[in-house]
# Entry
Amino acid sequence: MSLEPVFVRAAERIPPLEDDPDDFVGYEILVDFLEQRPLRKLEGDIIEIGAFMGRGTTRLAKLAQRYGKMVYVIDVFEPVLDQTLSRSGIKACDVYEAFLRGRSMFETYRESTRGFDNILTIREDSRKVRFGEEQRFVFGFIDGCHQQAYVENDFYIIWPHLVSGGVLGFHDYKFDEWPEVTEAVDKLIRAHKNEISEAYEIEGKYNILSLLLSKK
Ligand SMILES: C[S@@+](CC[C@H](N)C(=O)[O-])C[C@H]1O[C@@H](n2cnc3c(N)ncnc32)[C@H](O)[C@@H]1O
# Structure
């Protein structure tokens, strides 16, 4: 079976977005894609690994509200803990600090997500997080630490709990700066190809791709 991803160009799907400089993915594009699928009818919640300032979290939380679901968020919210080096030699923590411009990551996240009663925040290194057997997810989005071991770890936090017809996405797929994301994702696809029904490459902000996998 071939799992050649279907390419979805954002501009073909939705009108130009009002730009939010603190949204680094283009979450409206993801939400638009998810709304075309029957996720509402599936049983389970939404999970995001790597929320940063929480701008995308609020978009996922609005979607989850419409569907009567929760959003679980996993993030350490401590820039200095992520020392991952990009291909061009920049540390992830320095990228975070540059965008934060002196603000606290956690306080900024709390400010963004204030007023939502369907967000459950787990402030923890994702290697330390696992869910009980009964937990079900309909959508998971991985944009945490960009090291291969973390991307794989984060996949296994979600995948065993993803329901049939649910979707799991990875940000920064095929993005030159974070080659370990692509290596990890391609390895995971090979290992789980019999459990995947479709793959989509979604072009988001800055032309960066997210790869979304639909579970059989
Ligand atoms: C690229 S940012 C996420 C951006 C966010 N998705 C957005 O578009 O606004 C990566 C996030 O992963 C978090 N992170 C890095 N290493 C982590 C780890 N080991 N466990 C949990 N979160 C981690 C960072 O704190 C940061 O907020």
The chain has one domain: 6-13+23-215. The domain at 6-13+23-215 is CATH 3.40.50.150 (Rossmann fold).
